[in-house]
Amino acid sequence: MAKLKLAIVVGSTRRESINLKLAEALAKLGADAFEPSFVRIDDLPLFNQDLEADRPESTLRLKREIEAADAILIVTPEHNRSITAALKNAIDWASRPYGKNSWAGKLVAVTGTSGGAIGSAVAQQNLRMIMTNLAGVVVGGQVFITYKEGLIDGAHEVTDEGTRKFLQGFIDNFATIAGKLAG
Fold first, then answer.
1. pTM for the whole thing?
2. How many CB atoms neighbour CB 140 within 10 A?
3. Contact between 74 and 108 (Cβ < 8 Å)
4. How far apart are CA 131 and CA 11, in angstroms?
5. What's the mean pLDDT in 70-85?
6. CATH number at residue 129
7. Of 11, 67, 92, 156, which has the maximum CB count within 10 A?
8. From the CA atom positions of the chain, what is the Rg in Å?
9. How many domains does the chain have?
10. Contact by Cβ (8 Å): 16, 44
11. pLDDT of 93-106, one tens digit each?
12. Which is nearest to 8 in space by CA: 70, 59, 56?
């Protein structure tokens, strides 16, 4: 069976983002089922409806990448008990113009990490609400990862066996659901 196209959106734009590290580890864990691609969001202009008539190329690229995916994995940090401004901006651009929402009908899995005990739980809840409102099909299951230095090594391997098994189960479940919906 052909691999499913997985668009990965990381809500952080930091070069050394722990959420990017988690996303890279999940891409590696899901490599048997998914052909992953990372969706760039750091070059998007701030959403402004005045720009819709002559959309910037970066916003058109974002829409194409979301639309081409069989499934979407969003990995988000938590900023002030919500998602990042960069992630919200990307969500808004891909949902526009009215009637051409790229998120509609897309299978979406949500996760994230932080150094805190609840590992971006509140941001993930906000994101689930937004995606559901945009007619995304959000996969259930709560995946809150408390990030500790060294949890993911330079080769994108999860070093803690219990966390690795947990994340493998998450990505395998997502792949199973995505495969059923795609096939």
1. 0.96
2. 9
3. yes
4. 14
5. 95
6. 3.40.50.360
7. 11
8. 16
9. 1
10. no
11. 999 999 999 999 99
12. 70
